[in-house]
Amino acid sequence: MQLMVDYPKPWLLFGVATVISLGYMGYAFILKWRAWNRGAEETRRAEGGRGRATWIWLAEVLLQRQLFVLSPGRWLMHILIFYGFAGLLFLSLLASVLRPLALLGLDRGLSSFFFQGEGHLFIKLWGDAFGLALLAGLVAALFRRLFFRSVQLDNSQADVILLVSLLWLALTGFALEALRVALVPVWQARYSFFAQLFVSPGAYTYNQLQPWLTALWSLHAFSVLGLMLYLPHSKLMHSLLAPVVIAMNALGEQDREDIYWPDVKKHRPTGSPGA
Questions:
Q1: What is the pLDDT of residue 233?
Q2: Which residues of the chain fall below pLDDT 70?
Q3: What is the pLDDT of residue 266?
Q4: pTM, to two decimals
Q5: Which of 49, 67, 257, 274 has the most beta carbons within 10 angstroms of its beta carbon?
Q6: Rounded distance, CA 126 to CA 123, Å?
Q7: What is the pLDDT of residue 172?
Q8: Long-range contacts: 118-126, Cβ < 8 Å, 24+?
């Protein structure tokens, strides 16, 4: 049984734009990494250095440990944004990988399972859950910047652009899902538990919504590519790369029996980048 609502999409144009966006993002990331990575060669060659640096990076990026010590409330806000975005990015990567493999007959039926079969319900549940997490974190971040901005918090244009861009993607994504819910039966709509709050399942026909679905999908998809072009120049890239460099420096300090960075209770930073 096919559970996916299918409608025309500009796949060829989107594919070309995706290749260009990924190529630029990768190139910009390499340039950023080289700029941040000066003087770290000796640390990487140290015995066990790579493993220790990886552990520090996991603690500082995936767990946001420093931020939790500074402010549990800000930590929760950042975690919602980070993992909400990461979860949605995973869905996009899954589609980008499985569709070409399906054309080559190498997907072992996974493409049909996730996009036409029962696995599509899991995709919708996953998308709504991580999309809601992202939306909650972004609303909290914007609310804090507008009404509870501290002296240390710099309301820079770069921060606002990133937050507004992510909020735009979250809202257009939920709007697109709401249009899809308007075409499916109630039992299927319940898996899109957040989007179904704004529209009645099965309220419209395919012919009524098909042009809107195509237009909104195109707007959302190409907005994602626009964000990919901006990411290397945003503070999000700084948040990902800075802990790597910190880990490299910490290894050198540890080998010299100097200050060891991860002991955040003894050496609290005065500020933290981000929303």
A1: 80
A2: 1-3, 36-54, 56-57, 60-61, 149-158, 236-275
A3: 47
A4: 0.76
A5: 67
A6: 5
A7: 94
A8: 118/1, 118/3, 120/3, 120/4, 121/3, 121/188, 121/191, 122/191, 123/91, 124/177, 124/191, 124/192, 125/191, 125/192, 125/193, 126/87, 126/91
Cα separation, 62 vs 52, whole angstroms: 15
What would the DSSP string read from start to end of 148-165? S--TT----HHHHHHHHH
Cα dist from 128 to 72, 119, 170, 189, whole Å: 25, 15, 10, 11
Please determine, looking at this structure, whether the domain spanning 11-255 carries the CATH number 1.20.950.
yes
Closest by CA to 270, choosing from 75, 58, 66, is: 66
Chain centroid to CA 8? 26
The answer to whether residues 214 and 8 touch, using CB atoms and an 8 Å cutoff, is yes
> Per the structure block, which two tokens stand in for 20?
């260009």
Neighbouring C-beta atoms of residue 181, cutoff 10 Å:
28
Q: Give the whole-angstrom CA distance, residue 129 versus residue 10.
A: 27
